[in-house]
Amino acid sequence: MRPVRRNAAPALGAALALSATLLAASPVQADEEPTEHIVNGGFDDGATGWWGSPSIAPEVTEDGRLCADIPGGTADPWDVIIGQDGVPLRAGESYTFSFTASGDGSRPVRALVQEPVDPWRTELDERAFLTEEAAAHAFVFTADEDRDDAQVAFQVGGAAEPWTLCLDDVSLLDGAEPPVYVPDTGPRVRVNQLGYLPEGPKNATVVTDAADPLPWTLADADGAVVADGDTVPHGPDASSGQSVHTVDFSGFTEPGEGYTLTADGETSHPFAVSADLYEDLAADALSFYYPQRSGIGISDAVAPGYGREAGHVGVAPNQGDTEVPCHPATPCDYTLDVSGGWYDAGDHGKYVVNGGISVHQLMSVHERALHAPTGNPERAGDSTLRLPERDNGVPDVLDEARWEMEFLMAMQVPGGEPLAGMAHHKVHDAAWTAIPMLPADDPQPRYLHPPSTAATLNLAATAAQCSRVFEPYDAEFAASCLESAETAWAAATAHPEEYAPATGEGGGPYDDTDVSDEFYWAAAELYLATGDGGYEDAVTSSDLHADPAVFGPGGFDWRYTAPLGVLQLASVPNDLSDGARDALVEGAGQYLDNVGSHPYGLSYAPEDGVFAWGSNNLVLNNLVVLSTAYDVSGDAAFRDAVLEGMDYVLGRNALNQSYVTGHGSNDAVNQHSRWYAHQLDPSLPAPPPGSLAGGPNSDTATWDPVTEADLAGCAPQFCYIDDIGSYATNELTVNWNSTLAWVSAFAVEQLR
């Protein structure tokens, strides 16, 4: 969930054959024939112009194809390459890159047109799925830079078993029609594609230029009209660039399936009206975590379709997480067993600050069930999720949280070492791995990155919460959590300015140089766990304490955790709750206003209008604030704003896109992941149901190549594409799903 270079490749091997002098790029006029920029693409002159990695010996067959035996047991696609150098490109020109290829078995090949040296910036990065039958593939792209030295490369490494590749008719023609990405937004009537609670708010949005109200009708599954009325014109919406009307049909309460809403000649996707609307979503959002586990084989019987071998347990080619050393740039005299925990996102890294807010929100699902007026411990109890620890007398959500908590505590620096008691910031590969790649196939060395104050305070906060929630189920584990928390707090106060650097390779930096918010959150959790006056003083002396301003217009996430301190003090019984509740209710008011005034019911309204990376997470965290405000105040306006706010995530948005896999007629299915990679390799699964996509990201400085190619000039809500390559808009992460889990668990208990 961070902008990183994903196309790096090692230096190439010796040329297979003599390179040829290629034609210089020249402007293509409307009446000119396209120019071919590949030399010997039909292999009529043998292998002239082409090179290959040292591990292969490509040969031209009698029927004129270039074939090579590709060795098995390589780690990454770029470990074996066939390519051609010196290809000319002109900025702004559009090209068609095409080829015919076949391969033993069914496997992808990565086709690139790119810079020939580090950092290997790409003009084209596509994957073609090969079969034993030769098939033609073609891709169109527009060059960003003038080059006379571009490289065409077919990356074909990374397979466990040897196979044979054959290529023919490789071509790069200029004069192509520029590719234009136009999203299919479906019907102009936008609804929550999952549906609505019978007694809850029911709102929809109609995209139309009409100035006056329009008639709308609500029909049941048989097409019979069951309600009607008129739209309310809203006019232009800056977040979408659209002119819209709104529809409120909250007065209709009859349960049923297959309802549709029609206005301005358009009919919505179907939806349900049901009191049980959110039950499956709530279970799916929490069951998402089991297939994200590191250090354990995933059982197909528990998670059908997602079974896989354990990752990072030291079984070749893994180097494992059982004895991980410190990074060579910052060596230490020990190794740690940090197996377990959750893979953070679509890669194989594990990060304490991101894991911290994630496991906190899972444990808070349990705490809310215990303390909120509409909480229901049975719905968050044992045998309610898809995970192997069912039927053990412990709530399943806590079983899942424990898997991460044990990892977080294992990241603590041992006693007697420099910075003892602090937490290492993260553990991940030495370099970025290829995509797709199952966790068990990752061959990279793994390193502990230096301890940070932010990570240490995340450990202190979550371990303190752990001590509270686990005490009724495992007093010994609860005691170890509290010991870890207090040790971490002492270490953080002794080392308050150990900051993670803003750079890195093989993993995201998760840098943060203001940890006053983490200090406040950790102090609040330790006070709630112990009642100790020292922690109480740390809470009440903080400038952030009981301040409504901690709830900013852009929402909160792993980098800014002060709202968690207020939320916990407001909702978990304690002697400081009154001030925290007042601050919470006041701060939640802005999100209430956002939902009520926005034509898509959007709770998120950043001051600069720019949607950040992971905006769906920020949307949902604003709904967490509204949910908790309802829990502590009983004001139904907050509850209704949460329910209407969920509409945006589930399809009532500019793209008519449900951002949750498996929920909605037009659901996201290609979130960025190395092992939920069905889009690249049909033998792999798509993300499991209940996976949340990061969502629209209009911060162009953080864009990936897919986003840059397809979404230039997009209005904020349109800055999203359901493509596995768009990690800037479509990654899945443990901390984004934790917000979905929290809010959907709240929604399950409302208006029953």
Low-confidence stretches: 1-28
Radius of gyration, rounded?
Answer: 27 Å
Strand pairing plus helix content: what structural class?
alpha+beta
Residue-averaged pLDDT, rounded? 93
Global outline: globular
Q: What's the N-to-C terminus distance?
A: 36 Å
Q: Into which percent range does the helicity of residues fall? A: 25-40%
User: Care to count the β-strands?
Assistant: 27
Strand content: 15-25%
Largest beta-sheet details: 6 strands, mixed
Q: What is the count of DSSP helices, taking H or I runs of 4+ residues? A: 14
Tell me what you see in this structure.
This protein is of the alpha+beta class and 752 residues long. Strand 16 (232-237) and strand 17 form a beta hairpin. Helix 4 runs parallel beside helix 6 (516-530), helix 8 (562-571) packs parallel to helix 10 (615-633) and helix 9 crosses helix 10 (615-633).
Lay out the secondary structure.
Elements: E1 51-52, E2 59-60, E3 66-70, E4 81-89, E5 94-103, E6 107-114, E7 122-130, E8 135-142, E9 147-155, E10 163-174, E11 189-190, E12 195-196, E13 203-207, E14 215-219, E15 225-230, E16 232-237, E17 242-248, E18 256-263, E19 266-267, E20 271-273, H1 279-287, E21 324-325, E22 335-336, E23 350-351, H2 352-371, H3 396-410, E24 423-424, E25 426-429, E26 446-448, E27 451-452, H4 453-470, H5 475-494, H6 516-530, H7 533-540, H8 562-571, H9 577-597, H10 615-633, H11 636-649, H12 705-710, H13 727-730, H14 734-748
Helix pairs in contact: 1-14, 2-3, 2-4, 2-14, 3-4, 4-5, 4-6, 5-6, 6-7, 6-8, 8-9, 8-10, 9-10, 9-11, 10-11, 10-14
